[in-house]
């Protein structure tokens, strides 16, 4: 059977199907764009680079870059202090989540513990993090 409607004629049944299909494609494109935008604003804990690290007594101060979080503050860099952690422990980490977690949360040895504190990823933030870790080390 041959359709005799003009292209885009709303009275045509095939127009409604094409229109609905186009709306679904448009919705998928919008959803993908939204998902990509959110991914750029949230770091992936398994994709990181340790930019700087310093042992301060029994504690470890690290500056970590999350490449997928370049739109975050400080271009995805985070400065964190991990209590009672050595550089050797950090060598085993395959995941560093910068968010604070309850101390009783179970973790694998390949995962970093919850940071005790975070500082801005600036030179002043790094200095403050090291000073904070030194004060905590002196209390031990």
Description:
- 36% of the residues lie in helices and 17% in strands.
- With 140 residues, it is an alpha+beta fold.
- The chain folds into 2 domains: 10-40; 49-139, no CATH class.
- Strands 1-2-3-4 form a 4-stranded antiparallel beta sheet, with helices on one face.
- A hairpin with a 2-residue loop joins strand 1 (49-56) and strand 2 (59-65).
- It is elongated, with a radius of gyration of 25 Å.
Per-chain topology:
Blueprint: H1 13-40, E1 49-56, E2 59-65, E3 77-82, H2 87-91, E4 117-119, H3 123-139
Anisotropy-based shape? elongated
Q: What number of structural domains do the residues give? A: 2
Please state how the strands of the largest beta sheet are arranged side by side: 1-2-3-4
Span of the ends, CA to CA:
87 Å
- Helix segment count? 3
Secondary-structure class: alpha+beta
Order of helices and strands: HEEEHEH
């Amino acid at each position: 059977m041959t359709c005799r409607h003009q292209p885009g004629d709303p009275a045509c049944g095939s127009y409604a199907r094409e229109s609905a299909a186009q709306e679904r494609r448009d919705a998928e494109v919008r959803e993908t764009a939204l998902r990509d935008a959110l991914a750029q604003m949230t770091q992936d804990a398994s994709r990181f680079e340790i930019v700087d690290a310093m042992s301060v007594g029994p504690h470890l101060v690290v500056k970590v870059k999350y490449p997928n979080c370049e739109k975050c503050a400080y271009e995805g860099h985070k400065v964190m202090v991990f209590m009672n952690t050595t550089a050797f422990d950090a060598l085993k980490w395959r995941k560093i989540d910068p968010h604070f977690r309850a101390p009783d949360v179970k973790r694998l040895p390949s995962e970093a513990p919850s940071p005790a504190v975070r500082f801005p990823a600036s030179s002043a933030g790094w200095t403050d993090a090291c000073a904070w870790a030194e004060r905590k080390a002196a209390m031990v």
